[in-house]
Amino acid sequence: xxxxxxxxxxxxxxxxLKNKNCLITGATGGIGKEICKQLANYxxxxxxxxxxxxxxxxxxxxxxxxxKNIKIESFESxxxxxxxxxxxxxxxxxKFTSIDIIINSAGIFMIESIEKSSIKDxxxxxxxxxxxxxxxxxxxxxxxxxxxxxxxxxxxxxxxYSGFKNGSVYCTTKHSILGxxxxxxxxxxxxxxxxxxxxxxxxxxxxxxxxxxxxxxxFLNPIEVAEYIIHVxxxxxxxxxxxxxxxxxxxx
Length: 252
Prior knowledge:
Blueprint (H helix, E strand, L loop, with lengths): L1 H16 L3 E5 L4 H12 L3 E6 L2 H14 L5 E5 L5 H14 L5 E4 L14 H29 L2 E6 L12 H21 L4 E8 L21 H11 L10 E4 L6
Parallel strand pairs: 1-2, 1-4, 2-3, 4-5, 5-6, 6-7
Helix pairs in contact: 2-3, 2-7, 5-6
């Protein structure tokens, strides 16, 4: 049984991800970090970003231990600022001839009433959760389209489909990212550039700990979320899993 599982995994993923170049934002976050580790196992070259230099260095060291043969570059910056995004793009182009995969894992999770939410809060959340993925897709899908291969992972949320109390800012951004994903997928899939919106329920990350009205132990495991993302983006024939909702078995 184990042999069959490994045979299937190798058939599905080995020849698709090997030597591909992946840009991942929010790489040191709970889900982002697990995606990086799994991509390293599949010999995918990685360009990782974060706002924390120490965490980036630690992750880079971990990834080198997993696979010393892949290329790993990093960039530390606040990507809610457009000038910093442009600087990132220029640096990526210096280090990689092309980007084959974009993992839009950076995000801001905010719980606050609309009365207490500021315009600054709204703008920063939109900049990270929506504007950043838009700009990166606009830039790097040009080469993907030319090469007739690309994968873009948009990190949606259960809040892409519903609202919750004190979640007006966050839910607005996640509804927006779902709409962007649907539109880009319709635009690019005939060029084999597939845009996949993955929408997990609450997940066991540091960011999710601010949600104190729920039982953290019932949240999704970030390793399983990462495994699912890697799996679905590896289909390369007729089928596409363009939109996925990852729900919790227990809501408490």
